[in-house]
Amino acid sequence: MSIGVLVVDDSATMRGLIAAALKRDPDIEVLGFANDPIEAREQIKKLNPDVVTLDVEMPKMNGIEFLEKIMRLRPTPVVMVSTLTQAGADVTLAALELGAVDCIGKPVGGVTAQEAFSELTAKVKAAARARVKPYSGPAAPVERDSDYRASDCVLAIGSSTGGVEALMTILATFPATCPPTVITQHMPATFTKSFAARLDKISGAHVTEAKDGDRLVPGHVYLAPGGDLHMEVAGVSQPVIRLRAGEPVNGHRPSVDVLFESMAKLHRPTVGVILTGMGRDGAAGLLTMRQSGARTLGQDESSSVVYGMPRVAFEIGAVERQYGLSRMGPAILNLCSAADHQRTA
């Protein structure tokens, strides 16, 4: 059974390029087009698409306003098609918070449409399987764990599709004394700095985009920069961030597997967590962490937007225990505290 897609963009050229990319996959059918949110609303009612690709900047109503209406009234899997600019990153992150499943950048500079949209069909297919929930307004303030104290434990988190919501939910619970935390989230290069800034505003921890040579210290969270480098953690007495060149692993750079594999070599208590995402990146690395003595957690199926990465990790025995998103933050902090206590006992 084919996946029906509605393409929403105010540029006829861009609608054509998106449609051409989607039509290369025989499992996807382009049901129709809309050049603004008003027309899109009627097309959604008429065509009942499985997935909508949505432009961020459109006339009559911007993509964010329209997305909020969709997610409140008729929750539908949406893939945002964004300009890879600072403004485009900020708006797209807001869209992902509202419930958009994923995003993809428009071709810019010397990048061809075929290169820019090379992952579009995979993202649309993942979106068609995603669990989308009605948007019920901004999340209520979260009570942070004020009892948690600085730990020698190092925490590593890997996520992909659906990871924006998951990471925001988890880091909102982190206090200023949280364990040093490294995160690899699959995301375009121009997005990670903006995402780190958004996380920093809602968390008790200090969240930054990671830089090569950053020392891991309690109360800090380091987000891998998107783009051309993998992120690793290295060092004996003082762990530091290492950003290195390398071929994509599992189709990703930075790769969660690369981060987790480096974590398994640290001589200190560690905790690994794998969250929502399509594919299998991170599963093998998390297993290596567990085999090295680390504690490991995975997001459960019911709370994952796409239960791909955590499912593979669970099935190969990399995950000690699964938690829903609402319980994951406290579970992580408890495990980090327990891991540190076991090391020092």
UniProtKB/TrEMBL annotation:
Residues 4-121 form the Response regulatory domain. Pfam families: CheB_methylest, Response_reg. CDD domains: CheB_Rec (cd16432), REC_CheB-like (cd17541). InterPro entries: CheB-like, CheB_C, CheY-like_superfamily, Sig_transdc_resp-reg_Me-estase, Sig_transdc_resp-reg_receiver. The modification 4-aspartylphosphate is found at residue 55. One of its GO terms (molecular function) is protein-glutamate methylesterase activity. Involved in chemotaxis. Part of a chemotaxis signal transduction system that modulates chemotaxis in response to various stimuli. Catalyzes the demethylation of specific methylglutamate residues introduced into the chemoreceptors (methyl-accepting chemotaxis proteins or MCP) by CheR. Also mediates the irreversible deamidation of specific glutamine residues to glutamic acid. This is Protein-glutamate methylesterase/protein-glutamine glutaminase. Its EC number is 3.1.1.61, 3.5.1.44. HAMAP family: CheB_chemtxs. Residues 134-339 form the CheB-type methylesterase domain. Phosphorylated by CheA. Phosphorylation of the N-terminal regulatory domain activates the methylesterase activity. The active site is at 160, 186, 281. Contains a C-terminal catalytic domain, and an N-terminal region which modulates catalytic activity. Keywords: Chemotaxis, Cytoplasm, Hydrolase, Phosphoprotein. It comes from the Bacteria. PANTHER family: PROTEIN-GLUTAMATE METHYLESTERASE/PROTEIN-GLUTAMINE GLUTAMINASE (PTHR42872), PROTEIN-GLUTAMATE METHYLESTERASE_PROTEIN-GLUTAMINE GLUTAMINASE (PTHR42872:SF6). It is found in: Cytoplasm. It catalyses: L-glutaminyl-[protein] + H2O = L-glutamyl-[protein] + NH4(+); [protein]-L-glutamate 5-O-methyl ester + H2O = L-glutamyl-[protein] + methanol + H(+). Belongs to the CheB family.
